[in-house]
Specification:
Layout: H1 3-12, E1 18-27, E2 32-38, E3 52-57, E4 61-66, E5 77-83, H2 87-93, E6 100-107, E7 120-125, H3 130-142, E8 150-156, H4 165-173, E9 178-183, E10 193-194, E11 211-216, H5 219-231, E12 239-242, E13 258-259, E14 262-263, H6 264-267, E15 270-272, H7 273-276
Parallel strand pairs: 7-8, 7-11, 8-9, 9-10, 11-12
Antiparallel strand pairs: 1-2, 1-6, 2-5, 3-4, 3-6, 12-15, 13-14
């Protein structure tokens, strides 16, 4: 791709959508689908784990969606996990390979994975929160020798709502990953832990001074997970969380994501607990 085209794509990606194509669609649950998106002319998204893009469907609208794939994998495509909840996401769910969408971004501040090197990592996603954290988890696993322990604690309401079950099975078979999964409401097929995600914390022991914790999930979950993480002795500056549910325009113009003097879409969506603990509206 020419330098002129690259510069044009970079300059317009904030305000004007780039036309991208859907290359694969995979159903994960009754409500979630995984889309593989390909940008034109081999252009790379160049994202960080924790960032998001604005996705548009002609004649329907636009919405922010977290990037679910790792930047350490394919440079010519990226993945979005989309829950069907409204007009735009319903339109996305009707797309098939070859269909076109608009993409702006990536936006926001992601997770500083390079700063986590040499640390033990504790991931604690809940529900759809696994989608954005999957990006970071897979990058860490692709660069596994750079990190200490990797613990993934994942909670969902029901077994049928667990995301990426094939990858969960792969992670459970690895000797260098500690995976704990729980559901609130089991069915006859479930033989694992029952309860909210905080019921998993008594099952682990960590060395707090060298541990970085990363969580993402429904807002009601944060307060209780943060209490557990702080109770383990993890420093406030080593606890990262995503406020990706607040995203709207992506460029700090609409004010939807504003918390006091902070525009979450520009200064986040990834923050340490130390950065937002005094912002009452944040959690």
């Amino acid at each position: 791709m020419s330098e002129t085209l690259t510069a044009t794509l970079n300059a317009t990606s904030i305000y004007l959508p780039t036309q991208a194509s859907v290359s694969e669609v995979r159903s994960l649950t009754q409500l979630e689908k995984l889309f593989k998106i390909k940008l034109p002319d081999g252009h790379s998204l160049n994202h960080q784990p924790g960032q998001f893009v604005q996705v548009s469907v002609l004649g329907v609208g636009e919405a922010p969606i977290s990037i679910s794939s790792s930047p350490s994998r394919s440079n010519e495509s990226f993945e979005l996990c989309v829950r069907r909840v409204g007009d735009l996401t319903s339109a996305l769910h009707r797309l098939i390979p070859g269909d076109l969408i608009g993409v702006r971004g990536p936006f926001g501040r992601g997770l500083p994975v390079e700063r986590f090197r040499g640390k033990d990592l504790l991931f604690a996603p809940g529900g759809l929160g696994l989608a954005p954290l999957r990006s970071c988890i897979n990058q860490v696993l692709d660069e596994r020798s750079n990190y200490g322990r990797v613990i993934v604690m994942y909670g969902a309401r029901e077994p049928s709502e667990l995301l990426f079950t094939d990858e969960l099975e792969e992670w459970s078979q690895r000797d260098d990953v500690e995976l704990l999964v729980t559901v609130d409401h089991p069915d006859e097929t479930w033989s694992g832990n029952v309860g909210v995600i905080t019921t998993l914390f008594p099952k682990i022991q960590i060395y707090a001074p060298n541990t970085v914790a990363i969580t993402c999930g429904p807002p009601v979950m944060y307060r209780f997970v943060l209490m557990e993480l702080l109770g383990l002795g993890i420093r406030e500056g080593n606890i990262w969380l995503s406020l990706e549910r607040r995203m709207k325009c992506g460029v700090g113009k609409c004010g939807h994501c504003q918390i006091n003097n902070i525009y979450t879409c520009k200064e986040g969506p990834c923050f340490t607990y130390a950065q937002i603990k005094r912002l009452e509206e944040a959690l």
